[in-house]
Amino acid sequence: MEDRPDPLCASPTYLLFETGRLVRRTSARTFPDQPGLPHLLVLSCVARQGPLSQRQVAERLRMDAGDLVGIVDALERAGHVLRRRDPGDRRRYALDATEDGRLFLGACLDNRARLDDALFAPLSPDETQLFKELLLRILAHHDDRFAGAPDPRRRRDGAGQRTGAGMASGSTASS
């Protein structure tokens, strides 16, 4: 039997799917004690924009409210998020990041930058930049949260290649 090329390899959506799987595997192997990206997205959103209701967080991240509950529970158990009754509406909770949560988020974002460096090592800095620009263009076309995304060429720390955010003000952490 002849070994033919996989036709899926011509599909950008398939390649993105496989890239996402690579990111999850590499992240879990490199940082086994660090929570997954959904936890970091929630923590970043709350740290940047809190206090917010769980509904507001779910809307801003376009996340299922049912999934959010478990993530917030885990972040609260870890001491990274506080869930308190909203003084303006006692029926809802307001989420806010703790100081420990903010410090933890900073360390996680530093780890994510190292993960980016490892994953994108086969690309030159210019190719990595182009890849980010193309992804942002695709996302902005379909999702208004990315329409006003900061220029990915902006350096996070003045020296490194990573932006740290790469998303519009209504969203959060980088992968």
Distance between the termini: 41 Å
**What portion of residues is helical?**
40-55%
The arrangement of helices and strands along the chain is HHEHHEEHH
List how many beta strands DSSP finds: 3
Q: What would you call the shape?
A: elongated
Look at the structure and give the mean pLDDT: 84
Low-confidence stretches: 155-175
Main β sheet profile: 3 strands, antiparallel
Secondary structure tally, helices: 6
Strand content: 5-15%
Derived from helix and strand composition plus strand pairing, the structural class reads mainly alpha
Keywords:
single chain; 175 residues; mainly alpha; 3-stranded antiparallel sheet; 53% helix; disordered C terminus
Walk me through the structure.
The protein is mainly α. The longest helix is centred in the middle third of the chain and has 21 residues, at 99-119. Strands 1-3-2 form a 3-stranded antiparallel sheet. Residues 155-175 have low confidence and may be disordered. Helices cover 53% and strands 10% of the residues.
